Each structure stands twice: as structure tokens, then as C-alpha cells.
Amino acid sequence: MDFNNYLEDKKNIIDKALDKFLPPENKLPFIIHQAMRYSVFSGGKRIRAILTLTSAEILDQEIEKVISTACGIELIHTFSLIHDDLPCIDNDDFRRGKPSNHKVFGEAIALLAGDALLVSAFELIVKNAESKGIKKQSILKVIKEISYYIGTEKMLGGQVEDISLKNNNITKDDLYNMYMKKTGALICASIRAGAILSNANQRQLKALTRYGENIGLAFQITDDIIDIMQDQRIMKKPTFPNQYGIKESKNEADRLIKEAKDSLKIFNNKAEILKNFADYIILRER
Ligand code: GRG
């Protein structure tokens, strides 16, 4: 299957599952369910959820067995975007070309919609225990993993660094550290969750983690390049292309993608789909 069709196919599966899980807009309290659905269905690419499915797939797990966790991870991602856009954090009026959640529903509801999505995410991850053949032990491990990867040492901590770093005196290590936490952590956790639910051994988990860390960094560098190309948030904060220019940023993203692919050798030809994914991370236009 052509890789774009692969992505489209997986995205449709995830969209359907999310629609089934999320409370309908006509359920009380209406406003919170409307706000949750507004951001979940506003054009996200579903990269993290697809990565969970793909990592399960290359370990011969049926994707239906991990779909609940994949959707949970997508909800965590959506929650983080709603909070990131709030006036007290990044103060962005638009997300995916549409008014951000707080511009439509107001700050209080946007904050609560984010909270509700985070709570629902864990409900979905636990719900994965209903899938036949998935060990309860693996679910507990995934809950522990995800809590760690989105906590103060990883995603949340990265966001704290993001709002604290100033343009002057920032080193490449500072930037990488922040990118790895803010963006790389959830991407890495998405891949690891799929692998854990598919009984990956330590060697496979280590290889997939290295892959996840490298594509996570490349993802954020590419995101910053796309922002600069679209003339958005150019000088607001330190980013790789702001500090080192577009050419060096592209070279760096290429290098990281090569590293990511190199870590997949143990999967032989099964790695092909993850290699295509790695290329897509830096070739995408949005
Ligand atoms: C995790 C408890 C906890 C708090 C979250 C707000 C926050 C703390 C973190 C925000 C981190 C953040 C916004 C990182 C940027 C990640 C990023 C590059 C998002 C864009 O990802 P895409 O392109 O988005 O996959 P789409 O629109 O496709 O869904």
C-alpha cells in the first residue's frame, strides 16, 4: 500500500474510534462535550495515534487490540494543544487554521475541555484491558509509562522550559533537551505504548525508543521550519531555525531521520513502514 493511503486508512480508523468513544455534543453538560469534540475533530493528522498502531503492527499485534490506547494518546495530544494555545501559555488565536478552543468557547471552558480530555485519555487506556489477549500487567506498564512521559520530567517539564527559555545564551543542548521533552516525549511514548501492548522484548523496545527519540526531535525541528516558512511565531521564542538557520535545521532533521532508520535494523523488512513514517516526518508540509 502507498504510504499516504496507509496514513489515510489509519487516520480513518482512529477518527471512527474517537467518535465512538467521546460523549456526543447533545449530552449534558453540552458545552464541555462540544469543546472537547471541537478540538479533537479539527483536522489533526493523528501522527501519535498512528504510531501506536504501527508499532503494534510491526510486532504482529492486531491494531484493534491497541486502538483504545492509541485514541487515549491522541486525546492527550489534543489536551496539550488546547492548553498550549491559552493566553497564559502561548496565546495563540488559531490552531490548524481555525480559531483556537478558547477563542470559541472562552478560557474557562477551554481549560476544562483540556482537563476532560486528559481524564478521558486515561479512561481509554484502562479500557484497553477489555481487549482479549492484552495482559493487565502491560496496561499497568503503559499507564506508568505515559504518566512519566507526560509529567514534569518530560512533556510538562519541556513546556515549562519552552516558556522560560530566552533567545540569548541558549545552547544547542538546551534546545534539544527542551524539544526532546516537549514534543519528543509523547511521540516516543506513543511508539513504546504500542510495543508494550504487543509484548515487545527489551531489544525491540530499546530500538523503537531510539527511533522515537530521533523522529521526535526531527518532528519539532520540522515544525519550526514549517512555522517560519508560513511566517508564524518567527521571533517569539528560540527555535532551531531561528538560531541556526533553515539550511542547518534541514541538515539536522535529515541526520536525525537517518539515525532513526538505522535503529530499526533488527526488524528487517518489517521496518519499512516505520522508515516511510520517518521520511514523512520531515517531508510533510503541515
Ligand atoms: C502533559 C500534563 C501535561 C501538560 C501539557 C501544554 C503542555 C503541557 C504541553 C504542550 C506541548 C506542545 C504544544 C508541544 C508541541 C507539539 C507539536 C509540535 C504539536 C503539533 O503536532 P502535530 O503537527 O499536530 O502532530 P496536529 O495538528 O496534526 O494534531
Rg (C-alpha, Å) = 18 Å
| Strand segment tally | 2
| Quaternary form | single chain
Q: What distance separates the N and C termini?
A: 22 Å
Please, how many helices? 12
Into which percentage range does the β-strand content fall? under 5%
Task: Give a verbal description of the structure.
The chain has 286 residues and is mainly α. It contains twelve helices and two strands. The chain has helices at 3-21, 30-40, 47-58, 67-85, 101-105, 107-127, 136-150, 155-164, 172-196, 202-229, 240-262, 272-283, and strands spanning 94-95, 98-99. A two-stranded antiparallel ribbon has the order 1-2. Helix 1 (3-21) crosses helix 3 (47-58), helix 7 packs antiparallel against helix 9 and helix 11 runs antiparallel to helix 12. Residues 44-45, 47, 80-81, 83-84, 96, 150, 155-156, 159, 182-183, 220, 223 line the site of geranylgeranyl diphosphate.
Task: Offer a quick outline of the entry.
The protein is an all-alpha fold. Helix content is 70%, strand content 1%.
Write the layout of secondary structure elements.
Blueprint: H1 3-21, H2 30-40, H3 47-58, H4 67-85, E1 94-95, E2 98-99, H5 101-105, H6 107-127, H7 136-150, H8 155-164, H9 172-196, H10 202-229, H11 240-262, H12 272-283
Antiparallel strand pairs: 1-2
Helix pairs in contact: 1-3, 2-6, 3-4, 3-9, 4-6, 4-9, 7-9, 8-9, 9-10, 10-11, 10-12, 11-12
Bound molecules: geranylgeranyl diphosphate.
Geranylgeranyl diphosphate is lined by residues 44-45, 47, 80-81, 83-84, 96, 150, 155-156, 159, 182-183, 220, 223.
